[in-house]
């Protein structure tokens, strides 16, 4: 397991009793990321791509450097395939709106029952607007993707297949490569929600084979306000822009406009410049550890926590009961108690977890979660076995104090 990681994160210095188990929602930020953002505002702040004065040139360089780093981090062919958005949700909406023109009545859009609402509602709305057919690939009782069902659902009429790489509820790492290859065989466009994979496991977008991959900076040690959409160059070049305005144009006439090159065509208005600088520092931090090491840490935590959770009869776990092909996210209920009461009790012990539907209501229903309210404990690089022990000890005692 990684050790002494908390010392890099000021939030733990300022909240010495905090046991933060909500990284699935957003990660904490290392000092280097916070410093990089401050340094940018103090020394280099100017708008980008507009000024020919040195400060603006420097600021532009920092923004472009950030794209280069992110491109290398996910093994993209070129930084021109990296579009910065507000968050992953915006990236997924961008793809949906820009591809909408290709969808006709009766076409099929295939997603999975285990999607976060960010990769579900946009496709549901597109299907409604276009009278297309929305199909869901099922999962098994533990939330693992049913590949047999995928083979049946993806047909010659499928135009888009959108799938999450790692579930934010069960932590399952889905075999996206297999689903993508099924989609490719029928000529469908593939979109991957990588929000919970890019921060936790090595991701190579070219090996994965998808056409689009979206994720958020704030879940991978970066600041809020920046998301990444990677798109295959040939698609980005062909696609219609999503937002219109400054920076994304080449020429503007009174009644016509032409578009800038990619990726600027998709970045209307002032982009998240300081956030890009922060994300760059986040990538440096993760590279400093190594993504293989990050994943190894998750695996060790998973083995440690899973064993203990499964030994408690009063805990109902939603998700795999085995440690393979998953990250350290645990969604559960305490028999007889409401998830909010459990989360509140954990908070009294300084343990921050999330309770509710985790923006994945259809999945929770599929997994049989009562009332679709559950507690989720999600671990990251700064969590260690002591954090896990604190959670387990609190869960052993929760029924004594609540209910
Ligand atoms: C799997 C998954 N997809 C999409 C999102 C949406 O991310 P954001 O709110 O940063 O757009 C999340 C956030 O929780 C997520 O876990």
Sum up the structure in keywords.
4-stranded antiparallel beta sheet; 7-stranded mixed beta sheet; Aspartate Aminotransferase, domain 2; binds pyridoxal-5'-phosphate; alpha/beta; single chain; Aspartate Aminotransferase, domain 1; 403 residues
Write the layout of secondary structure elements.
Blueprint lengths: L9 H5 L4 E2 L10 H14 L9 H20 L8 E4 L2 H12 L8 E5 L8 H10 L2 E5 L9 H7 L4 E7 L11 H10 L3 E5 L11 H4 L3 E5 L10 E5 L1 H6 L10 E4 L4 E3 L13 H17 L1 H20 L4 E4 L10 E6 L4 H10 L2 E2 L1 E3 L4 H6 L7 E5 L6 H17 L2
Parallel strand pairs: 1-13, 3-4, 3-5, 5-6, 6-7
Antiparallel strand pairs: 2-8, 7-8, 9-10, 11-12, 12-15, 14-15
Helix pairs in contact: 2-10, 3-10, 11-14
Bound molecules: pyridoxal-5'-phosphate.
Structure report:
This protein is an alpha/beta fold and 403 residues long. It has 2 domains: 5-27 and 290-401, Aspartate Aminotransferase, domain 1 (Alpha-Beta Complex); 33-287, Type I PLP-dependent aspartate aminotransferase-like (Major domain) (Aspartate Aminotransferase, domain 2, 3-Layer(aba) Sandwich). It has helices at residues 10-14, 31-44, 54-73, 88-99, 121-130, 147-153, 176-185, 205-208, 233-238, 273-289, 291-310, 339-348, 361-366, 385-401, and strands at residues 19-20, 82-85, 108-112, 133-137, 158-164, 189-193, 212-216, 227-231, 249-252, 257-259, 315-318, 329-334, 351-352, 354-356, 374-378. It has a 7-stranded mixed beta sheet, sandwiched between helices. Helix 5 (121-130) links the parallel strand 3 and strand 4. It starts with 9 loop residues before the first helix and ends with a helix. The model has no long low-confidence stretch (mean pLDDT 97). The structure holds pyridoxal-5'-phosphate. Pyridoxal-5'-phosphate is lined by residues 24-25, 87-89, 116, 118-119, 164, 168, 193, 195-196, 216, 359.
